[in-house]
């Protein structure tokens, strides 16, 4: 699949995943009604959202098959790394450069989305192309 088509699919599916993740966080906040700290609620919502995003991204964007557990763990690494990248860049823009937080996020987010897409393309769902190397002593 062409990178452009995959990129467009990623933006559409990612937008839906964003809405789902936000709704999940809000619903869990209402459900727990202060019984859990919002940071714990965030972590629960993150796990739910990452799992949902993995399924939709895997099936609708990269159309990957096989290696489900490996792909899921790699997906979590990329998603976690993108969250750290987002926070680091946001902190630099706001605290280091003095930008307004909303403006800073508007500037940082496209970079993070691109980095995340490339991380999923080259790592989470990467499938080597070409023939498998022959292993001595094994029948093909």
User: Strand pairing plus helix content: what structural class?
Assistant: mainly alpha
Number of H- or I-type helical stretches: 4
Low-confidence spans: none
Write down the oligomeric state: single chain
Number of DSSP strands? 0
The shape is globular
- N-C termini distance: 28 Å
Instruction: Please tell me the overall pLDDT.
Output: 90
The succession of helices and strands, N to C, reads: HHHH
User: How many domain units?
Assistant: 1
Helix content: over 70%
Indicate the proportion of strand residues: under 5%
User: Can you summarize the main beta sheet?
Assistant: none
Q: Rg to the nearest angstrom?
A: 18 Å
Could you write a compact summary of the structure shown?
The protein is mainly alpha-helical.
Explained architecture:
There is one protein chain. This protein is mainly alpha-helical and 140 residues long. It has one domain (3-124). It is 77% helix and 0% strand. It is built from four helices and no strands. The protein is globular. The protein starts with a helix and ends in a 16-residue tail after the last helix. The mean pLDDT is 90.
């Amino acid at each position: 699949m062409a990178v452009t088509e995959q990129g467009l699919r990623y933006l559409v599916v990612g937008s839906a995943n964003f809405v789902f993740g936000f709704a999940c966080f809000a619903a869990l906040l209402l459900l727990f009604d202060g019984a859990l700290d919002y940071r714990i609620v965030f972590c629960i919502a993150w796990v739910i959202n990452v799992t949902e995003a993995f399924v939709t991204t895997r099936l609708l964007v990269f159309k990957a098959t096989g290696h489900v557990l490996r792909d899921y763990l790699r997906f979590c690494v990329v998603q976690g790394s993108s969250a750290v990248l987002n926070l680091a860049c946001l902190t630099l823009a706001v605290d280091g450069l003095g930008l307004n937080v909303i403006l800073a996020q508007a500037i940082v987010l496209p970079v993070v989305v691109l980095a995340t897409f490339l991380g999923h393309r080259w790592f989470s769902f990467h499938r080597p192309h070409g023939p498998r190397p022959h292993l001595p002593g094994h029948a093909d």
